[in-house]
């Protein structure tokens, strides 16, 4: 497919997306400066006010600046491509995109709470799009220890000027980074809590080598503002059951600071069962179909094969991507998965290595593409499967699930934008009208899942709150009237390219 690469086309689409986001999220486009109520008092407030005034002057008043209510620091700065935040002309042509980003942060990093960008930020990834825009993704560190969720992304144009910067930065850290809990004790603690959670023996689980991280719940959207040193550990099932727990063990006191399952499922259920030897590893399976095999006649086998092929083709033709990891990774699926032998596993999931489907759950093209997209997200986006990050993760899978289905396996017009309509249980979400299934279509919706209940269930509302981005994707493709705005759709190819840029 022909890609749009001209600057004016990019700008036009950027403005369309902005209009859609205004409609979906109800945000204001009018430029504003940080008020004293939004910032800390005293010198910090004066510094932020002074720097935001400089940015507004540099951008002719076009900059949009948002604050983090928890930290009192800036969370987002964005301006249009024609009013970028310039760095000194003498430096601009000589710097790499990373150097340009760091130059910007040296001057304006205090807005985000950064005191010394050279020592507080490490580059996670750097990407260039259309040979004109670069995205520098930084990880926050404190005494060389990374902060969980502490990240910052700067967008640089072809002239090495800044068009946006978004941050979840934890300011003013003061912490003893010497652990008193050993890695082996932390491993045993993590194994114990996961085994208890799922009713398993610890022998059914495996644990990776602990790594020291710094954790503060406010970065993940929770209320408790306590910074602690933790051992970050991942616990997974030996036999491939849907268990992939991220566990944080306090490295000085030994308690569990946080744990949640990172398995991404097409439909969320709470099913508890005793382990009965169910496995989905190659050694325990019989290969049913590969690239040189004929159709088997088994709907689950053939559907998983065909629909994963459609997904590969879409990512390849639309985005130039070679499989899940962009390096030709073999796409592996396991069908007819059953936990306890009574054929009631009504679900599908990506376990970090392959797609796994209960009987009949490979029958939906959008669900197969949904699960495969979780794999792409794993390799590209660094999204936690928890709270708002997890809702974005789920939405990306729904969005590509529907893009693939509408491109290769479009059904009846009444099925358009339904997720999972070909499952044994029928549709589970509606991207055109998320509220039909009780999901929110905007941040201010009464259906929005937040609070203590949802932190315990559905990983903080990941399947519920995905409705917001799903609605945005529908509007971008088909257009419509929503939230007092009329949106003109621009079709699947351009919308997919925009979301792929976000995802990668």
Count of individual helical segments: 13
Tell me, what's the shape? globular
- What is the strand content? 15-25%
What is the topology, as strand order, of the major beta sheet? 1-2-6-5-4-3
Quaternary structure of the protein = single chain
Low-pLDDT stretches are 1-12, 25-41, 267-284
Number of separate strands:
19
Distance between the termini: 19 Å
How much helix is in the residues?
A: 25-40%
In round numbers, the mean pLDDT is: 84
Structural class: alpha+beta
Main sheet: strands, sense, barrel = 6 strands, antiparallel
Description:
This protein has 504 residues and is an alpha+beta fold. It has 13 helices and 19 strands. The strands form 5 sheets. The protein has a 6-stranded antiparallel β-sheet with strand order 1-2-6-5-4-3. Strands 7, 8, 9, 10 and 11 form a 5-stranded antiparallel β-sheet that branches. Strands 12-14-15-13 form a 4-stranded mixed β-sheet. A hairpin with a 6-residue loop joins strand 9 and strand 10 (244-250).
């Amino acid at each position: 497919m022909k890609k749009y690469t001209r600057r004016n086309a990019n700008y036009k689409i950027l403005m369309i997306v902005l209009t859609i986001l205004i409609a979906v999220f109800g945000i204001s486009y009018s430029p504003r400066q940080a008020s004293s109520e939004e910032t800390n008092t005293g010198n910090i407030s004066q510094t932020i006010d002074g720097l935001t005034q400089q940015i507004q002057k540099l951008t002719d008043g076009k900059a949009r600046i948002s604050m983090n209510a928890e930290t009192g620091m800036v969370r987002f700065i964005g301006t249009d491509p024609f009013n970028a935040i310039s760095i000194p002309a003498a430096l601009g042509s000589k710097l790499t995109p990373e150097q340009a980003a760091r130059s910007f942060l040296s001057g304006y990093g205090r807005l985000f709470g950064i005191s010394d960008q050279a020592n507080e930020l490490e580059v996670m990834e750097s990407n260039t799009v259309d040979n004109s825009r670069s995205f520098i993704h930084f990880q926050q560190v404190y005494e060389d220890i990374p902060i969980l969720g502490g990240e910052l992304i700067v967008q640089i144009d072809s002239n090495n000027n800044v068009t946006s910067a978004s941050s979840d930065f934890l300011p003013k850290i003061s912490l003893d980074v010497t652990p008193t809990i050993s890695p082996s004790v932390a491993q045993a603690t993590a194994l114990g809590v996961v085994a208890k959670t799922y009713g398993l023996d610890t022998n059914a689980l495996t644990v990776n080598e602990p790594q020291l991280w710094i954790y503060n719940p406010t970065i993940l959207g929770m209320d408790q503002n306590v910074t602690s040193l933790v051992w970050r550990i991942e616990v997974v099932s030996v036999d491939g059951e849907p268990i992939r727990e991220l566990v944080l063990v306090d490295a000085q006191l030994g308690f569990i600071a946080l744990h949640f399952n990172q398995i991404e499922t097409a439909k969320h259920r709470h099913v508890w069962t005793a382990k009965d030897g169910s496995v989905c590893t190659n050694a325990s399976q019989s290969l049913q179909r590969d690239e040189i095999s004929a159709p088997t006649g088994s709907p689950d086998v053939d559907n998983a094969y065909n629909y994963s092929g459609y997904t590969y083709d879409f990512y390849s033709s639309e985005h130039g991507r070679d499989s899940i990891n962009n390096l030709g990774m073999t796409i592996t699926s396991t069908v007819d998965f059953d936990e306890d032998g009574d054929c009631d596993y009504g679900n599908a999931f990506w376990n970090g290595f392959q797609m796994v489907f209960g009987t009949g759950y490979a029958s939906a093209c959008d669900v197969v593409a949904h699960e495969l997209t979780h794999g792409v997200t794993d390799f590209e986006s660094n999204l936690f499967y928890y709270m708002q990050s997890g809702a974005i993760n789920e939405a990306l899978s729904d969005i590509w699930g529907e893009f693939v289905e509408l491109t290769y396996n479009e059904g009846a017009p009444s099925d358009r934008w339904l997720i999972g309509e070909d499952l044994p249980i029928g549709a589970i979400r509606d991207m055109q009208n998320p509220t039909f299934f009780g999901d929110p279509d905007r941040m201010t919706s009464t259906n929005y899942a937040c609070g203590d209940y949802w932190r315990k269930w559905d990983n903080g509302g990941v399947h519920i709150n995905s409705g917001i981005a799903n609605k945005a994707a529908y509007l971008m493709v088909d257009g419509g009237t929503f939230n007092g705005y009329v949106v003109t759709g621009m079709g699947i190819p351009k919308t997919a390219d925009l979301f792929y840029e976000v995802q990668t």
